[in-house]
Structure formats: structure tokens, C-alpha cells
């Protein structure tokens, strides 16, 4: 499955993994501390920090919470925090057409 991913996705997974590792280091936390707080194994945390795109989404969220950046991540993805999103906010309220 990972072999089917585009280079752009693999590159982004790697960059996001590096960002998680960077946050951990800036906060002065060990991998063991973050893994324990996130209730994941150190191996799973290592995979995330090395950009393994097969890491489950819930792991990403758990680690973000353990690092105290879950709200930052959530806000970064909010379409209404962008000019384009605010300009097209009406589309978020429309019913789905089947």
C-alpha cells in the first residue's frame, strides 16, 4: 500500500514526522516519555517521526495531544481560518446532493 503513494505524499509524511520529532526535542521530552503519554509503543513513535505513512491517524492525534499541539494541528486544518475558506463558507452549510 505504501508503495502506491505519490512522492509528494511520501515527502509530506517525512516532513510531518520530522516536525513531530522537532516538537518532542524542543519540549525536552524523550521518545519513551512521549510514547507513554500517547499510549503507543516507542517503535510506533519512531515510525511516525521517521515519516512512515502507514502509521494510523489515531496515533498522529494521540502523539499531537501528548506533545500539547493537538489544538494547533486542529486549527491549522480549519478551512475557516483561511481567506478562501471564509469566502466560500456558504458551501460548508449546503446539504449533500445525491
What labels describe this entry?
single chain; 98 residues; mainly alpha; Lambda_DNA-bd_dom_sf; Cro/C1-type_HTH; Helix-turn-helix domain-containing protein
Radius of gyration from the alpha-carbon trace, in angstroms: 16 Å
Order of helices and strands: HHHHHH
Can you summarize the main beta sheet?
A: none
Distance between the termini: 30 Å
The pLDDT mean sits at 92
Total beta strand runs: 0
Poorly predicted runs are none
Shape: globular
Q: Which structural category do the helix and sheet elements fall into?
A: mainly alpha
Helix content: 55-70%
Strand content: under 5%
* DSSP helical segment count: 6
Helix and strand layout, with pairings?
Layout: H1 7-26, H2 31-38, H3 42-49, H4 57-67, H5 70-76, H6 83-87
Helix pairs in contact: 2-3, 2-4
Give a quick rundown of the structure.
By secondary structure, this protein is mainly alpha-helical.
Report on this model:
With 98 residues, this protein is mostly helical. It is built from six helices and no strands. α2 (31-38) crosses α3 (42-49) and α2 (31-38) packs across α4 (57-67). 15% of the residues are buried. The model has no long low-confidence stretch (mean pLDDT 92).
Amino acid at each position: 500500500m505504501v508503495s502506491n503513494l505519490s512522492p509528494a505524499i511520501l515527502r509530506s509524511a517525512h516532513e510531518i514526522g520530522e516536525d513531530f520529532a522537532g516538537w518532542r526535542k524542543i519540549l525536552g521530552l524523550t521518545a519513551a516519555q512521549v510514547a507513554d503519554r500517547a499510549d503507543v509503543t516507542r517503535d510506533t513513535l519512531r515510525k511516525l517521526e521517521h515519516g512512515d505513512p502507514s502509521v494510523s491517524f489515531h496515533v498522529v492525534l494521540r502523539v499531537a495531544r501528548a506533545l500539547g499541539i493537538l489544538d494547533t494541528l486542529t486549527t491549522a486544518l480549519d478551512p475557516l481560518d483561511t481567506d478562501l475558506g471564509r469566502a466560500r463558507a456558504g458551501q460548508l452549510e449546503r446539504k449533500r446532493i445525491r
